[in-house]
Write a structure and sequence with these properties.
By secondary structure, this protein is of the alpha+beta class. It has one domain. It has four helices and three strands, in the order αβααββα. A hairpin with a 6-residue loop joins strand 2 and strand 3. The longest helix is centred in the middle third of the chain and has 15 residues. It is globular, with a radius of gyration of 12 Å.
Amino acid sequence: MKFPPDLVARVRSSISRVGYCFLNTDELHRLLGGVPASLRARHEAIEEFADLCGADVETTTHLKSARFTPDGANRDAVSSEEELRRIVSA
């Protein structure tokens, strides 16, 4: 699958600088523009994007935002969808 190169670069750059990267709803919409509307297909595409970026990914249930962290890193996981939304909107 082909992903927007600027989003790949942004995620990689942010992870190397600060250790994580968040994508908001608009960015996820851009990322998943060519993916079928099913949640399963979209989750698979986000996982593929994370692999391409060398990252792990956590998403909200309905893909409103996503957090990318270094692949296999020890980190504190976001414990709920609400916490992820709070962090992303900060």
